Every structure is written in structure tokens, then in C-alpha cells.
Amino acid sequence: MTHADTNQSPLRTQDPEVAAWLQREDRRQGNTLTLIASENHCSSAVREATSTRITDKYAEGYPNRRYYGGCEVADGIEELARQRAMQLFAGAEDANVQPHSGTTANLAALLALAGPGGRIVGMALKAGGHLSHGHDKSHTGMVFQARQYGVDATGRIDLDEVRRVVNEHQPKVLIAGGSSYARNIDYKAFAAIAKEVGAFLLADIAHPAGLMAAGVVPSPIGIADVVTMTTHKTLRGPRGGMILARKDVAKLINSAVFPGSQGGPLMQQIAGKAVAFGEALRPEFRTYQQKVKDHAAWLAECLMAQGLDIVTGGTDNHIVLVDLRRTDVTGAAVEERALAAGLSVNKNAIPGDPRPPMVTSGLRLGTAAVTTRGFGRDQIKSIADVITGLVRGADPERFRPTVQGLCEAFPLP
Ligand SMILES: Cc1ncc(COP(=O)(O)O)c(C=O)c1O
Q1: Which numbered atom of ligand 1 lies nearest the CA of 232?
Q2: Which of 96, 240, 326, 378 fits a disulfide with 231 by CB distance 3.0 to 4.6 angstroms?
Q3: Cα angle at 232 between 276 and 412, to 5 degrees?
Q4: Directed axis angle between helix 377-391 and helix 400-409, to 10°?
Q5: Dmax of the chain from CA atoms?
Q6: How far lies 105's CA from each of 97, 240, 244, 298, 312, in Å?
Q7: Tens digit of pLDDT for each residue in 307-346?
Q8: How many beta carbons lie within 10 A of that of residue 68, not counting itself?
Q9: What are the strands, taking DSSP E only, across 210-359?
Q10: Each residue of 102-157: pLDDT tens digit?
Q11: Helix, strand, or coil here: 144?
Q12: Is 157 helix (H, G, I), strand (E, B) or coil?
């Protein structure tokens, strides 16, 4: 029960309109199964930390070097978050917990390592990369001279192509990582390619950060010069970003975050990050991440057994990318049908997609959020049955009772 559920809720009393919207979102999440690979449900302890009075505090600068007075609590919280982050990602030499998001973490890292106008190389959005890896509609594609690499016909990163693009473009930064890439990345091979041209290697682990923190998939810590991430996906923290850096570039990174690309840090989010990192340091977190990974592999297996195609034929992480080209439906159509059935999923371009980005021939699924709700293999199989039924054109209403039953049996944390 929250304040908003009672008549003592200051929000409900003062602003019933916003309170009603927020209650509606509580209900939406409760009555929907989230299969969006970039979403998760953080704990109520994390949410509590992010709604505390520290939201009022300005703390420009870094612990013990602030531009405002009264920062002793902010210092304590930020330092705790940093130390926990470095414990969680053992081998990381420095942590900056201030980035407001994954995008600002990438902007700051690129500013620090490439400098304004510098040359960068990242994976193309169409191939599974992220906008902030140099896409021309992102500031990273406007501020830097960006070139992009893709994937091969099987949907995997083609290291020969990465090497070719890097040799042609001679970047200062090579980026490894993506938003819909379901396979492990060979960070050592990327580091070797970066070294050939004297570039820094930036690994963006926004998606698999939690799996990596738990040690269930290989991590770039100790291999990449700088690692950026979001804290709200598999890592299951509050919305935000983080940068881990080698000692020799940490100063550059810190000044590229503040004052380079941000003002005052969101101290309430940093408090939430500290709580989430504390949770991630517990043994249960490893068990959770192992399940997230096993569930994704099982989901891919169930979908393939029912005749659907999966890009790369499976997954190494929490992402399953369905290739709908052999069916007669688009990603957009399945997304809409899924919502009507109570599943939150997203249409996604697949490598070589013939359809435009608002339509697509793919569906990206992720198992982090439903595993947080306590799903096991049987429930994952039920989801696979629903998705296959929707792709084959069954009426979404037919699945609503099954989905509602799962939502009620596995409530939000
Ligand atoms: C690989 C990658 N990097 C960066 C981001 C950006 O994160 P944010 O939405 O917090 O800016 C995302 C978000 O999905 C991502 O997948």
C-alpha cells in the first residue's frame, strides 16, 4: 500500500489529476506482462530512495569538491554508490554515477575520448546498435564524425567488417554494444581492432549490465577503456546511467559528465542507484540473472519449436529477437495485438529489414521483467504460446484471461 492508495496521500489531496494518472500506470503495469527488453521492475526500496527529499539538493561537482554548501549527505550517498558500483563490477578502476541516462553517459564518454568533432565508429541502429552510437539523428552523429558497422547475414557481428570500417575511418573511439543484439560480444577482438589504429574501446553494456554484474555473461571490464551503461534495464535499478573507466581516463570522463554535458546530478536517482547496487551485491541477484538468461534461451527455444524464426537462431543474454519475415505480419501489427492481449512488447528492426522503422519485420522480447515477477519455465512457455498465437492471427481477446491470470499469480514487487 502506498500513500496514493489512502486518503492521507498528499498527492491525491493536492493533485488528484496527476495521482489518478499515476494510479492508472500502477494498474497498467500490474495487469500487463512486460516483455520489453529494456524495461524491468525495480524494488520498492529503490523507488522509495528516489522519492526522498534529496531530490531538492543541488550538488554540482563531485564528492568533497562541490560548488554548493550542505552537500555532506550527497557526498556520502554518491561515494557509497561509486564504491558499490566498483565492487559489483570488480576490476573497474573508477565509477561515475552521475549520468542522467545511457544517452548522456555515451555523449560524455565520447566527448572525453574523441573530443568535439572527433571520429567514432559504432554499430548501426539497423543492425542492433543504439542511436547514441553515432546515428545521424542523434547528437552523437551530429557532433562527431561517425561511421557505422553492421552484422553479417546470420545477424552476428562481422569482425572483418568492423576492422575494415575502423581501418578506413581511423576513429578515436570504437564502440561495442547494442540494443537488440542477443549474442555475446568478443570484447578482446574489439580491443585488438581498436589498438591497431590507436583508438579507445568504449563498451556500452546498457542491456546486459545486470547479467555481467552477476557474472552470467562475459563482461568487458578490464578489456574496454571505458564502459557505459543504463541502471534501469537488467541491472534493475532506477532510471539512469553510469560510466566505469580506467584510472588514466577517469578525470577526462568526470569533466565530460560535469561540466561537459550535465549540470547538477539527480541525487535522488543516485540514492536509488546505491540501493540497487547493494541489492545486486547479494547472492539472490546472481540466481535472478541466471534465470533471466535461462528464460530467454527457453523462450527462444519454445518459439522456434512452434515455427517462428529467431535472429541468430537463439540468444546468449536476456533478448530474443523474432524475425517475422516468413509470416504475413509486421512487427507493428504484432505489437498492437500483444497489447490487446496484455503483453507489452516492442516492434524492432531486424538486420536487413525491408520495412521502415515504424513498421519493422521484428519483435524484440526480453525476460528481465517477468523473471522479476517470479516467472518460471512454465510461465515462459505460456508466453511463447500466446505470442505464436498472435503471430498466427488469433484474436488477442482469447489470450487476455491467461495473461490476466499470470499477472495476478505473479504480482509486481
Ligand atoms: C545500448 C544502449 N545504450 C544507450 C541507451 C540509452 O539509454 P537512455 O534511454 O537511458 O538514454 C540504450 C537504451 O535503450 C541502449 O540500449
Answers
A1: 10
A2: 240
A3: 80
A4: 160
A5: 65
A6: 9, 9, 10, 33, 29
A7: 999 999 999 999 999 999 999 999 999 999 999 999 999 9
A8: 12
A9: 226-230, 241-245, 309-310, 319-323, 343-344, 346-347
A10: 999 999 999 999 999 999 999 999 899 999 999 999 999 999 999 999 999 899 99
A11: coil
A12: strand
- Residue 42: which of 237, 211, 285 has the closest Cα? 237
Pocket test for ligand 1, best of 40, 101, 106, 130 (most atoms within 8 A of CB): 130
Reported as a pLDDT band with limits 50, 70 and 90, residue 3 is low
Distance of CA 206 to the CA centre of its chain: 4
- Residue-range domains of the chain with CATH: 50-280 (3.40.640.10), 284-409 (3.90.1150.10)
Residue with cell 516492434: 347
If 0-12 CB within 10 Å is exposed, 13-18 middle and 19+ buried, where does residue 317 land?
Answer: buried
Smallest CA separation from ligand 1 atom 8, residue: 102
What's this model's pTM, rounded to 2 decimal places?
0.96
Residue type, 320: V
